[in-house]
Every structure is written in structure tokens, then in C-alpha cells.
Amino acid sequence: MVVKCEDVWREISNYFEGDLDLALKRAMEEHFARCHHCRAVLEGTRNVVELYGDKKMFALPAGFYPRLHGRLADRVEGRKGSRLGWLVSLAVTGALAASALFATVHDRLVPQARAQMSQPSRRLPQHLVAVVDGGKTFHVPACPFMHGKYRMVTPEEAVREGYAPCNRCMYEALRTAGNVEPDFEGEEIAAGPMAEN
Amino acid sequence: MRNRDWSEAEATSVSRSDPGHEHEAALIVRIQHGERELFYELIRPYERRVFVIAFTILRNEADAEDAAQDAFLKAFKHLGQFRAESRFSTWLIQVAVNEARLRRRRSHLEIMQPIEDQENEDGTYTPRDFADWREIPSEALERKEIREKLVAALGSLAQKYREVFVLRDVEHMSIEETAQALGISAGAVKTRLLRARLMLRDLLSPGLAGVWASPSQIPKGTKPWS
Predict the structure, then answer these.
(1) Are residues B82 and B158 in the same domain?
(2) CB-CB contact of B92 with B158 (8 Å)
(3) pLDDT tens-digit profile of B58-102?
(4) Contact, B29 vs B73, CB < 8 A?
(5) Is A43 in the B-facing interface, judged by CB distances under 8 Å?
(6) Is the residue at B121 inside a domain?
(7) How far apart are CA B121 and CA B185, in angstroms?
């Protein structure tokens, strides 16, 4: 049997597969022995098959396995939709809702600080303090920096209402009382009164 | 998911004496009876294969990974419909192929098919280049740019050729298994395989204006790995 180049090209894949009868296979091998072009096609095609068949050819993306198993775990291990899962979700949602509700109520019950930088004092005077409605700080009644009609409240009430200690009169009052050290920075009382309240 | 595209006559009869098949069959029964974690063991040998066939169809790594994950999920969901006369691997690849094709259609990639798709595959393919490149430096695949060139060459083929070539020559499935997985005849597999191999050889032959031979990277007349 004699084969032409066109026959070889048509059957070369089957030649690789070993899917030829013996006579055709021998005829092709004889053809390869004398035809440089068909031998080049044979070797080139073999190279293609071997290069692409190499395990190094297609690498899985980094992190492929953990992502795949993470995705499958919900279904295979029954995480999604389980009763426990629902209970956990419900509990978390409830806790978040309660937290949001508490924050809202707290904001409404506790007044905002009137002074921008005010913080609740940890060391408060023992006696009543004076506050002026519309003011920002609480004072001793004789404080020259307090103007207007004042009312007397306990220091705790003043703080709860959002007043901060006057850093002049209240600092001085705490310091001279001797039993407590003011936990805020005081200022010298200036010569002239400054209406700040 | 049913093996709807291939007939009983075409189906490969899987030898019951095949220990791999018997082990898989036993695993499937146990999974169906509640030992669901064994699904990981069942699919472990085929994880890479599923990704590669999805990548071959979609030509995008992220899409291929998503498709592979969905294919495994569908395989788990429909494991009860698996017919034991074929290999699990073949059925699984069929699921993956269908999933990737579906995504491809959804993403409208079909309208960007290479021109070879319009060709009649029955026509004889004539090699365009007869350059001699006999050496096969497998170490060349260590180089990322070489792998990328090979992937690009494969990606330039029409989908029907890529699918056949990857299942047969990359994943080493048999002609019959490839035919089953793709829902085509064994004859069509052989025809497409021949054309895919010869086209890739032409594309990769040095000296031709193929994907290797971009002048900026690979000087004309040299091997891509030299």
C-alpha cells in the first residue's frame, strides 16, 4: 500500500491513537521515512500533544481548593438552612436590634452635653452647684463668670443634664476644699468677668 | 442531571471489575444514604479537570472557577440521577460542560466565536507549515509566558475544537468518554481532534505568523522556548 501526503494528514491523528489497521500504519511509516514534510507534521503534532498533556500546563488558581470547599460546605455539610443555623441567625439579629433600640432610648433619655468638649466629671463637689438654663457649665453660686437666673442642683444632676464644671470657679472650689483633686484643668480667674455660662 | 445527549448504544459499558469504578460506586451509594461528607472524596480526583474544561469554554479564570463550583454543587444536588452505567467522571464533566456552556450563552460570548467555527469540519485540513521542531523541552512549561502562549493558541481555536482537544489530549479521557461528555459521536471527536491538533501545530510552528511568532517576543525562526 502506498499513501500520499494528503492521506497521511487525514490519518495522522488516528496514527497517534493507534487506531489504524496494520497495513495503513506500515504504509504511513514508510511515507514518514521518505517525506520530510510529513515527518515534520508528525513530530510537530506529537510535540503539541505532549506539551498540552503535561500536568504543568494548566495550573489551578491560588486558593481554588479552599474556595471550592467553602462553597460546597454549605450544601454538603448542611450548614445552610439547618435549624441551628436559623436559631443562631435569629439570636444575632435579635441582639443587634436590641442594641440599636437601647442606643436610641439612651440617646433620648440622656441629654446631649451642652458644652462641646464636656465630659462627665468623676470628682464632683459635695455641695449643690448653680446652673443657668441655656448655659453650658455649672458653677459655685458666687462665680463671676455666671450670669442670669440660676438654680441650684446637685453636681450629679448637673452632669446628667449635660453641664460641665466651670474650669475656673469649680476648679478652685474643688482644690481649696482639699479633699478632692479636680480631674480637669483649671484656669486662673481673670480680672474681669466673662459671660460664658 | 440526565445523560440525555448520548444513547445507550454509545455509552461505554464500564467494567464492573474496575476497582476505581467500584470504589466510586460504593462512595455514591454511601453519599446517597447520608454520608454526605464523602462527596469531597468522590470529586477530589476531578477538581482540576472540571476547572480546566470550564476554563477551556469560558477562557476566563474567574468565570471558570465559578462555573466549576456551580458544576460541583449541581453534581451533588443531582447525584441521585447519576446512571451507574457510565463513569462518574464522565457524567461530572458533562455537568461541567453544560454549566460552562450555559454561562457562555448568558454572557453573550457566543457572538464572538472565532471564525473557524463557521468552517466545515469535514473538509481535509492541510498543514500550513512544515518547519521542523522536534525537541520537546518540557521544562519550558515552567515559564509562565510559554504557558500563556500555549493557552492563547488553544483559545484561538473554535470552541468545538478546544473542548475535544482538552478532554482528550489535556485530560487524557478516551475518545468514547470525550464523546459522551460532549454529547457527540466518536467519529466527530476524531475529526475535531485531528483538526485541533494540526491547527495548534500550525499556530505554534516557528516561522509562521502564529501566536508564538510575535516579533517583539520571539524572533522569527527560533523556538519559543529557546
Answers:
(1) no
(2) no
(3) 999 999 999 999 999 999 999 988 877 788 999 999 999 999 999
(4) no
(5) yes
(6) no
(7) 14
Cell numbers describing residue A140: 459655685
Q: Are residues B69 and B97 in the same domain?
A: yes
- Residue from A97, A98, A57 nearest B138 by CA: A57
Q: Is the residue at B118 inside a domain?
A: no
Do B105 and B159 share a domain, yes or no? no
Could you tell me the residue range of the domain that residue B30 belongs to? 1-112
B12 and B103 inside one domain? yes
Residues B43 and B138 in one domain: no
pLDDT in tens, A95-126: 777 777 776 666 666 556 565 555 555 567 77
Q: A6, B204: Cβ pair inside 8 Å?
A: no
| B102 in reach of chain A (CB within 8 A) | no
State the Cα–Cα distance between residues A61 and A21, nearest whole angstrom: 43
**Which chain A positions have a beta carbon within 8 Å of B36's beta carbon?**
76-78
Q: Does B139 share its domain with B108?
A: no
Residues of chain B scoring pLDDT < 50: 1-16, 115, 117-118, 207-211, 213-226
